[in-house]
Design a protein that fits this description.
The chain has 167 residues and is of the alpha/beta class. It has a single domain (6-164), classed as Rossmann fold (3-Layer(aba) Sandwich), CATH 3.40.50.2020. Helix content is 26%, strand content 26%. Strand 3 (89-97), helix 3 and strand 4 (118-126) form a beta-alpha-beta unit. The radius of gyration is 15 Å and the shape is globular.
Length: 167
């Protein structure tokens, strides 16, 4: 399987996001990237949009419902939101949507800061493997992988790599 070119996806996503925001009459969205890959995607997307809006970052490690189950011991960094959440139209950006648990955790954290007017979900890739009813409003590409395959995003220059867990 060949993976899509992230730069081309970002360009397409920028066009779709502009149209989505215009359709919803959202003129001043606040952008938030989910650490780490979502921040890289958000930075590339803001550059493509020609936007100098501040970028918020979320580290959702402690909000994950599988934190203790998976034995995760991530390098937790604080979230940084340089704007109010209450009443704002947020654009939440992640790299890869798989189970939906990261996005659920991000929403939980955001609501701890306030009640946004709306949240638009943007993902570079949707792996169509959802365990929760979460779908992006704007997506670069949807992929169906075998159970033993994963996609890894490296950055900040955005490169995709297909990993085979069976090896």
């Amino acid at each position: 399987m060949s993976l899509p070119n992230p730069a081309e996806l970002i360009s397409q996503m920028a066009t779709r996001l502009k149209a989505h925001l215009e359709h919803r009459a959202i003129s001043e969205p606040r952008y938030i990237g989910i650490r780490t890959g979502g921040v890289w995607v958000a930075q590339a997307l803001l550059k493509e949009l020609g936007s100098d809006e501040p970028l918020g970052t979320l580290d959702v490690s402690f909000y994950r419902d599988d934190f203790s189950q998976n034995g995760l011991h991530p390098q937790v960094r604080p979230s940084a939101l340089p704007f109010e959440i209450e009443g704002q139209h947020l654009v939440l950006i992640d790299d890869v949507l798989m189970s939906g648990r990261t996005v659920r955790a991000a929403l939980n954290e955001l609501f701890d800061y306030g009640r946004p007017a709306s949240v638009t979900l943007v993902c570079l890739l949707d792996l169509d493997a959802g365990e929760l009813p979460i779908r992006p409003n704007v997506v670069g590409a949807t992929l169906s992988l075998a159970a033993h395959e994963r996609v890894k995003l490296s950055g900040p220059e955005l490169a995709l790599e297909l990993q085979d867990l069976a090896l």
